[in-house]
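Q: what sequence does this backbone want?
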């Protein structure tokens, strides 16, 4: 006698019980997953993304704001310009990505040192930024310092709300090289958002201190004066990379591929190699403005480029 034919303590055949249960399941597929009544149905809510991610880094508290994003069509015309189409498609497929479009996020960073609250970049508009700040329990008048990685519209648009500064108590910091490049060009976004605040601004160059434990790192190329920022606290480090790399696969696995929005394309590629090479060699995590998910992760050298690994629970262990 096989085990399925044994009897249980009531004397009933286990095989008979099994067959009866199986028949009941076969007979009732239409009932599985069917609401008991119309009132039990829930409205479809649509896609959602957490508004922020927060973690400790040494004695600091870091909050990465998620203020939306957009679908980018014909993605190779932005990343991998001029690269062989088959190679581009193969890289996308190897990373479970479509080869025709991507989703570009916006992720400003807030660092609370305990004595100052510092915001890195401001999004396209205050209307996108303020709800994320509110969700994170932060108010615009609590921001002491706004630091700009560069002056593209999606990084400076939230500096002003109408005719008033969005952050009334904040000082402004930005790269000297960056402002000197954009100001003479008469760029409308710079004129509307940055120039009215320039009297309150402090200009930065590489290795200048933003605050205790935060220094500017020259990462020129995407724009002529683009800056990254290295935060170090309690023996832990985080690099805020801005737009030094704008895609977690195409810009990192192939750092030499041409990116349409890079002002100096050769310099931008050189910066991707040097900056992310440092992060890989020193195992420093980073937050990139357009990175996916929580916009927080690591890179490791792989082949002639880098492999991106998103952060999971590493920072949750900090308390």
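A:
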């Amino acid at each position: 006698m096989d085990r399925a034919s044994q009897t249980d303590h009531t004397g009933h055949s286990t095989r008979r019980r099994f067959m009866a249960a199986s028949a009941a399941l076969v007979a009732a597929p239409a009932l599985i997953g069917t609401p008991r009544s119309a009132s039990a149905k829930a409205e479809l809510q649509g896609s959602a993304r957490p508004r922020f991610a927060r973690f400790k880094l040494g004695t600091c508290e870091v909050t990465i704001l998620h203020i939306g994003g957009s679908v980018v069509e014909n993605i190779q015309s932005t990343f991998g310009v001029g690269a062989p189409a088959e190679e581009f498609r193969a890289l996308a497929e190897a990373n479970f990505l479509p080869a025709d479009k991507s989703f570009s996020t916006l992720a400003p960073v807030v660092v609370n040192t305990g004595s100052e609250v510092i915001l890195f970049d401001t999004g396209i508009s205050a209307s996108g930024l303020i709800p994320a700040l509110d969700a994170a329990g932060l108010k615009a008048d609590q921001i002491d310092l706004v630091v700009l990685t560069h002056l593209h519209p999606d990084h400076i648009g939230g500096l002003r709300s109408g005719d008033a500064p969005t952050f009334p108590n904040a000082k402004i910091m930005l790269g000297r090289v960056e402002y000197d490049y954009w100001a003479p060009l008469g760029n409308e976004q710079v004129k509307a958002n940055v120039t009215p605040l320039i009297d309150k601004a402090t200009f930065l160059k590489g290795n200048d201190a933003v605050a205790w434990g935060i220094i500017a790192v020259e990462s020129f190329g995407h724009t002529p004066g683009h800056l990254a920022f290295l935060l170090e606290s309690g023996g832990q480090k985080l690099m805020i990379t801005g737009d030094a790399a704008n895609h977690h696969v195409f810009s990192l696995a192939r750092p030499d591929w041409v990116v349409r929005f890079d002002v100096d394309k050769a310099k931008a590629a050189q910066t991707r190699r040097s900056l992310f090479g440092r992060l890989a060699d020193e195992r420093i995590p980073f937050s990139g403005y357009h990175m996916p998910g929580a916009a927080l992760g690591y890179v490791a050298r792989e082949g002639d480029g880098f492999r991106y690994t998103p952060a999971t629970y590493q920072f949750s262990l900090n308390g």
